[in-house]
Specification:
Chain lengths: ~425, ~950
């Protein structure tokens, strides 16, 4: 009996093993984690672009706020925020330079995929061109005179474009996008997040497009183009709500992100602290100071810098962050007036904003003080939105930014190391 | 029936095989007629009987003893076996299912017995390997309980691929994953500066109980490991667990109890005056150092001592039972280990059980089964890199010694005035727990298909499965200071990782003996699968008192899978001519789901030879050997895919291009190695020497190449470089007792020395920096003509980066001394590393906090030059350490007899008891980036090293 049982076992075992062998899975299977690029739809590319605009935003805005002396980022674990950003030079291989650049170009990559897709309708193209232009503006806000890259194929032997070329391309994209949007019918074929509420049809999204057009025209001192664009969005600009506009929204949902600028202003130690000059330069009674900044008892000190001003602009990790608000359009309008020599009109816009903030009105605005005044209003009305550095550069006033320590400087961001040969 | 006729003409030989020293019978010793497969094995009494035909030479082989021969024709043949001190008759692995005697081996195969691994207890197997082998570089990435150990064989073989050797236990490939715990997410270590994993994870090979191990063999280079093909570029560690022996069941119980304490500190700055404090921190902080009267109190709190100064209680109990009869033998091993850490709420626990059974089904069929169940648990605290100032090292760096952050009388902790967290509070409440449950099982089935006098054909099937479930929990209660700036206070991270590895190999083994020659032919098929699945939930805004991830205001969930299917086949021919010449050739073909082209096999050949010259000049025996072979290193399982990543907003699914472009043509890296060596002994075995030189050329290096981010992708996978590594290894054994009489003292000395260096010889892309946090904070340089582990910084000369250091040591040297005198034995292992550098950012952290021990002399200069000068933060990591020491007293038999004990030993054991090093950080072995190939040696204050002492008691029944 025993022997027979063993013989049976001897016969069965190899068969079991062979079955196991042949029953094995194939070596060819798709990536178990992520979809391939051919599965992307226009909706997923549009949403991906919109969502991706917030990726790297935290570092991008810190770069602008710190270099523009609106805030410090006192991060004891990383000396670069107070060293590299306030003294320079910026490391072309470091994350302060690289991360915002890469994040913005990743959005552009989605826009380009949409523009090259046979499934993209006019509305999708209008969205893609507008967002592409917006991201180029964000890149240029850091690199300034160093320009940016306008070929998106990864060929680093092609020369990078100059600042003027990039501005011209932004204009082209916005104008072509406007044409697309005008041909796009009454509704988009895709859904946008609530951050675009009020701007989520082709006819209203074009307002965002024109607002950006005004912003870039002002940077080019092209007052007439700026005026044309602003006139077309008058209802938004003068609709009575300074905060009406286009926003990044945040949530705790899957694969979504937080507003990285929020910290509890009363915590013992904070990283994002407002530059002390924001308090000392403020005009008396300005609610834009008192509403957005907490004067703390405890000072945060690090690396020879100190501040007791905590931002209170955001009250949670999910507060939306503006891309463009009505009050910016009003201030762009004031800049256009100043550019055209119409100081009275500029003054009346500024005064309406100042009155709303509880500050005394300006008088006798003229060529000698107009630019400084509009820069002051932009600084306080667009607090922590990252415009100050660009504005000071535009008017050649970076020399007026306060330097806190010996050896500090106002720096520009280089083109990242991996974008150039060698 | 015909066999009976043969037997009728033959005569019978009977006898016993015993240990020459003790006279104990040796069970299952192999007795056979020289030059044939006619043979038998001894029974539980060590007896055998064998029918032979005419005059023959009988040969007896038994592991650990010298092989003996006896010419006879009939009657009795008793063998008293002598221990094989030179280990020339020990077999070493040459293939998946083949071995050769060490005297014929063509490669330097390092091996140690299990006993040498457990001189003093270790938490993990990989740490027990430290200092034991020439050419094996073991680095403890962190001192945290449960380890995290880098095992490197013969230097650098890859830039992006797996760096760890293949582990094979009882013929089956076992898993050695290192899974992230999620700690790097709560510390934001992977935030701004680096996206690479920084959790200093544990290695799953650590689960294996070193007490279960019979022997470990290491196939260090491609020429030895070629038969393992595309997975073997980092070498192969072959582990055989203890098997049963026939005879009455023998039990062994041992218990070890002891304590661990801090091995090294960084030290700190002492503030002598109020003015000094004020200059550094301003008046508000400096005033905290004053007493009630406003005078400088002169406080000098040693926060390293306070935080790292716990005494860990250590316990290990092991139990084993060995027994069986001629048909069935078993080994049963159990381990319980509970080791407290040197930081509050840290420690390691392991419970392991193993049952190994060998069973002879028939004359032709044998089955051996191994099973192992393990539960391991570690509590690891929060150490290492940080962007939140939560970890202990960062926090201490920002805590000047004059301020008092110790617990208040009411049990609360003071708010740290300079740092976002109070590390003493954190250490009391922070949870970083890892629990792994693991099941390993394997089965080996050996069937003799055909046997003749001079020929033997066998079928060997090996099947194995290795499953583990690892759960990591990280919890920060909402009331901690570190959470006070978050609107959603409190965090809980739950990571669950499951993995199943399966193995199947089907082999044929053919042996043929001809006059003066033997042929050993093996061929087989392998099938291996790997299926890894990990879900990670990060909850924030915890409901007070709750730790479950659903008791929170928000959650982020991540899910990752890795899957691999491999198939291989091999053929190997080994020929021995006389006793002197050994020649081998093999070919292995591999295909894997990770390769871009799954239709074409990658082939890995090998050729090896050795020749024994015997007695030459002063040498008792001299062997020359040479081997050439190739191995591969698999691409990562994701490398061939170009995919899109999820990026959602407002509850709508969005997709963006992945940061890394896949490569549909990716293929394994290929290492070609040429190895030469000479082995000899002199003066009757007084000294044995094994000397080896090798050169490896690595082609098709897999690189994560920078892409212009303006294309939407930052990296792509490419085969695009070459590298070479060369080195030499020397193993020296001395047996002074053979020449000198020390009055009964027995003394063994074993030394290993090795050195190697690597160089990038070809790079198809622009040179680049890799690893670390930024160029000015120290990084690794990948450039033609540079060592791949070169450390560079801001300093440049003529447009080229200055090399500030190199992770790779100049040499490593270790020696073990074993003494015994009567009942007392002493054994210890000294381990020396000369050279090798690390980027010591722990000093930078302390400098930024103004607390470095040398801040006044040098810290200011280091900081002032930060950005332009990196060199002060690159330091030599040379050290000399006492790895283990054991002192044992065997109680004389007369005293134990009455209690039924066969033996009783008491002793003292030390582990990592002493270390001398000029390195100023906590640990010269540090790696913030775990087992990454490039960029590991970055010090951001790991878990400090500890030293352990045990009292041991062992008894046999």
């Amino acid at each position: 009996m025993k022997t027979k049982k063993r013989n049976t076992l001897m016969k069965i075992l190899p068969m079991v093993l062979v079955l196991f062998w042949t029953g094995c899975e194939d070596l060819d299977f798709p990536d178990p984690n992520n979809p391939t690029d051919d599965t992307a739809t226009i909706q997923s590319l549009v949403t991906g672009a919109e969502a991706q605009m917030r990726s790297g935003f935290g570092i991008w805005i810190r770069d602008l706020l710190v270099v523009g002396r609106e805030a410090y980022y006192l991060e004891p674990a990383d000396p670069r925020y107070t060293g590299e950003l306030l003294r320079g030079p910026i490391d072309p291989g470091g994350f302060l330079c690289y991360t915002p650049w890469a994040a913005n170009y990743k959005v552009i990559s989605n826009c380009q995929t949409i523009l090259n897709s046979s499934e993209a309708d006019a509305g999708a193209k209008g969205f893609a061109r507008t967002v592409n232009a917006y991201c180029l503006m964000r890149v240029l806000a850091l690199t300034n005179e160093n320009g940016a890259r306008l070929n998106y194929d990864g060929d680093i032997n092609v020369a990078t474009a100059s600042k003027e070329e990039v501005l011209a391309e932004i204009v082209n994209l916005l104008d072509a996008g406007k044409t697309n949007l005008e041909e796009a019918g009454s509704d988009f074929s895709f859904t946008l997040s609530s951050g675009f509420d009020g701007f989520n049809t082709p006819a209203t999204f074009v307002h965002f497009n024109r607002g950006l057009r005004a912003r870039v025209a002002v940077l080019q001192d092209d007052w007439s183009a700026a005026q044309t664009a602003l006139t077309s969005v008058d209802a938004w600009m003068n609709g009575g709500d300074h905060d009406a506009g286009v926003y990044h929204v945040f949530s705790s949902g899957a694969n979504d992100v937080d507003n990285q600028m929020f910290e509890d202003p009363n915590a013992a130690t904070l990283k994002l602290m407002v530059h002390p000059s924001f308090l000392t330069d403020a005009h008396e009674g300005d609610a834009r100071l008192t509403n957005n900044v907490l004067e703390r008892e405890a000072t945060v000190t690090y690396d020879g810098l100190e501040s007791y001003l905590a931002p209170t602009l955001y009250s949670s990790s999910y507060d939306p962050v503006p891309m463009m608000r009505a009050v910016e359009l009003q201030l762009l309008q004031a800049e256009v007036h100043i550019g055209n020599g119409d100081y009275g009109s500029a003054e009346s816009i500024m005064n309406s904003i100042r009155t709303a903030a509880g500050v005394a009105e300006y008088t006798a605005t003229d060529a000698s003080n107009a630019v400084d005044r509009v820069l002051h209003e932009k600084r306080y009305s667009l607090f922590l939105e990252g415009h100050r550095l660009t504005d000071m550069r535009h008017y050649g006033k970076t020399g007026e930014l306060p330097l806190d320590r010996d050896g500090d400087a106002v720096v520009s961001f280089p083109i990242p190391e991996t974008e150039t040969p060698g | 029936m015909s066999a009976q006729i043969v037997i009728a003409q033959s005569s019978r030989i009977t006898g016993t095989v015993t240990d020459a020293e003790s006279g104990d019978p040796l069970v299952a010793a192999h007795v056979f007629v020289k030059g044939t497969f006619v043979g038998t094995t001894t029974d539980v009494d060590g007896s055998y009987s064998l029918d032979v035909d005419g005059n023959v030479t009988l040969v007896v082989a038994y592991m650990g003893y010298k092989t003996q021969e006896l010419a006879t024709s009939s009657g009795s043949g008793n063998f008293a076996m002598e221990p094989d001190v030179l280990r020339q008759d020990e077999v070493v692995v040459t293939g998946l299912v083949s071995t050769v005697k060490r005297r014929n081996a063509a490669n330097a195969v390092a091996s140690v017995s299990g006993d040498d691994l457990v001189n003093a207890p270790t938490q993990t197997l990989d740490q027990a390997l430290g200092g034991q082998f020439a050419g094996v570089n073991i680095r403890r990435n962190t001192g945290a309980p449960g380890g995290g150990t880098n095992v490197n064989l013969r230097g650098q073989s890859t830039l992006t691929g797996s760096t760890q050797p293949l582990y094979v236990i009882d013929g089956v490939i076992v898993n050695n994953d290192a899974n992230q715990s999620g700690i790097d997410v709560v510390t934001a270590a992977t935030g701004a500066g680096s996206s690479r994993p920084q959790g200093q994870p544990t290695n799953r090979i650590g689960d294996i109980n070193p007490n279960d191990i019979e022997s470990v063999e290491v196939l260090k280079g491609a020429s030895a490991a070629a038969i393992y093909g595309a997975k073997a570029s980092n070498g192969v560690v072959i582990i055989n667990t203890k098997r049963g022996k026939g005879g009455p069941t023998k039990f062994n119980f041992s218990t070890k109890t002891g304590s661990s304490s801090l091995l090294r500190k960084m030290g700190h700055r002492v503030f002598d005056t109020y003015t000094e404090a004020e200059e550094q921190y301003g008046a508000d902080i400096a005033a905290l150092g004053n007493d009630a009267n406003g005078n400088w109190a002169g406080n000098n709190f040693d926060y390293e001592e306070i935080l790292y100064g716990e005494t860990g209680q250590l316990t290990e109990h092991t139990l084993s039972a060995i027994g069986g009869n001629e048909e069935t033998q078993f080994y049963l091993g159990g381990q319980y280990m509970d080791e407290g850490g040197i930081i509050k709420n840290t420690g390691y626990k392991k419970i392991s059980g193993r049952l190994n059974v060998n069973h002879r089904l028939s004359e032709k069929a044998k089955l051996s089964v191994s099973t192992n169940l393990v539960r391991s648990e570690s509590d690891r605290g929060v150490t290492g890199n940080d962007n939140t100032n939560m970890t202990y090292g960062f926090s201490i760096g920002f805590t000047p010694s004059f301020i008092d952050i110790r617990k208040n009388a009411d049990g609360s902790y003071p708010i740290h005035p300079l740092n976002p967290s109070n590390p003493l509070e954190t250490s009391e409440y922070f949870v970083n727990n890892e629990v792994t449950h693991r099941v390993l099982g394997s089965m080996k089935f050996d069937y003799n298909l055909f046997r003749a006098d001079n020929m033997d054909l066998g079928f060997l099937a090996v099947a194995g499965a290795d499953f583990y479930n690892q759960e990591n929990e990280v919890f920060i209660p909402p009331f901690l200071q570190i959470e006070s700036s978050n609107d959603e206070a409190g965090q809980s991270v739950m990571t669950t990782t499951d993995n199943l590895n399966t193995n199947l190999s089907l082999n044929m083994v053919h042996k043929m003996k001809m006059p003066g020659m033997t042929f050993n032919t093996t061929a087989g098929l392998q099938y291996e699968t790997y299926d890894w699945n990990s879900v990670f939930v990060h909850a924030t805004g915890m409901i007070p008192t709750q730790t479950n991830v659903d008791k929170a205001s928000s959650q982020a969930v991540y899910h990752d899978r890795k899957k691999r299917q491999d198939r291989g086949q091999f053929f190997q021919e080994e020929v021995t001519v006389g006793d002197n010449l050994y020649v081998a050739f093999s070919m292995r073909g591999d295909v894997s789901s990770t390769m871009g082209d799954i239709e074409t096999k990658e082939w890995y050949p090998k050729a090896a030879a050795s020749y024994q010259l015997g007695e030459v000049a002063v040498f008792d025996n001299l062997k020359l050997r040479g081997a050439w072979g190739q191995t591969g290193n698999m691409p990562q399982s994701k490398a061939k895919y170009t995919t899109m990543a999820s990026s959602n907003i407002g509850g709508i699914n969005g997709l963006v291009a992945s940061s890394t472009k896949g490569n549909s043509a990716i293929k394994p890296e290929r290492t070609t190695e040429l190895e030469f060596g000479a082995d000899f002994s002199v003066m009757g075995g007084f000294a044995t020497v094994e000397a080896t030189m090798y050169q490896q050329n690595i082609e098709d290096l897999i690189l994560l190449v920078d892409e212009a981010p303006s294309s939407g992708a930052s990296y792509s996978w490419q085969n695009g470089g070459e590298m070479k590594t060369s080195g030499m290894e020397l193993a020296l054994g001395l047996n002074p007792t053979m020449l000198f009489d020390f009055g009964g003292l027995d003394w063994n000395f074993h030394m290993t020395y090795y050195t190697n260096e690597s160089e990038v010889t070809k790079l198809n892309v622009d040179p680049y920096n890799y690893g670390g946090f930024a160029t000015f904070l120290g990084t690794y340089r990948i450039e033609e003509g540079y060592s791949p582990t070169s450390i560079v910084g801001s300093e440049m000369t003529d447009g080229k980066h200055d090399v500030l250091g190199d992770e790779n040591p100049d040499y490593r040297l270790s020696f073990r001394n074993s003494f015994s005198l009567g009942p007392v034995s002493l054994s210890f292992l000294i381990d020396r590393k000369e050279g090798g550098h690390a980027i010591n950012l722990a000093n930078l952290i302390y400098d930024l906090g103004g607390t470095t021990v040398d801040f006044e002399e040098n810290g200011g200069d280091r900081l002032a030059n930060l950005g332009a000068v990196t060199a002060p933060y690159v330091e030599s990591t040379s050290y000399t350490a006492l790895r283990d020491l054991s002192l044992t007293y065997t109680v004389p038999g007369g005293l134990t007899e009455g209690y039924g004990l066969s033996n009783l030993k008491i002793g003292l054991a030390l582990r990592n008891w002493w270390m001398a090093s000029d390195y100023t950080g906590l640990s010269p072995e540090v790696s913030q980036f775990g087992n990454e190939a490039i960029g590991g040696s970055v010090d951001t204050n790991p878990f400090p090293l500890s030293k352990s002492m045990y009292l041991t008691l062992s008894m046999g029944l």
